[in-house]
Amino acid sequence: xxxxxxxxxxxxxxxxxxxxxxxxxxxxxxxxxxxxxxxxxxxxxxxxxxxxxxxxxxxxxxxxxxxxxxxxxxxxxxxxxxxxxxxxxxxxxxxxxxxxxxxxxxxxxxxxxxxxxxxxxxxxxxxxxxxxxxxxxxxxxxxxxxxxxxxxxxxxxxxxxxxxxxxxxxxxxxxxxxxxxxxxxxxxxxx
Length: 191
Fold this sequence. Notes:
191 residues; alpha/beta; five-stranded parallel sheet; three-stranded antiparallel sheet
C-alpha cells in the first residue's frame, strides 16, 4: 500500500499542490496527470521519500523502486554495467543469465557491452525496462517512464506493468500517455 494524506507543497511563492490525498493498493496503479510545472514530479519525489512535503504525510508498506524522468545511467559504463550497478545499489542480487535475459527482452543484447554514451535516448530508457524486470520491489514510483520509447518499448512497458500488478505490485506513474491496464484512478494536478 502507498498512501498520501493531505499533501501540500510550495516552491518559493508558487503553490504546486494543496491537500492532495491518494491511496494505491496491491494490484492497482495511479496515473498522475497534469500540465508541465503542476507538481507531478514533486509529488512523486514526496511519495518516494526523496522530497519532503510542506504538509501531510506518506505511508508505504514495502520496498519502493523510484525512477525519475531522466534515465539515471552513467555514460562511461556499458549497458550491462549500468544495469548491474542500478541493481547492486538497491541490494538486488541477480545472476548473469537473468541479466542477459532481461537485456535480450529489452532489445539490448547486441548493445550490452556498448558504453551508454553511444546509445540512443530510447535505448538508454530500455536499460530501465530491464531493471523493472529484475527488481522485486512491490512499489513502483515512475516519472514519465515512456519518454523516448518507441511503440515496441511502450508495449514492453505496458506488459511489465500488467505483470507487476498481477503479482500484487502497485504503481504510481506520472504520464501523459494512456496506458492499459486502465488505472484504478487518475490524479489530476493543477486542475
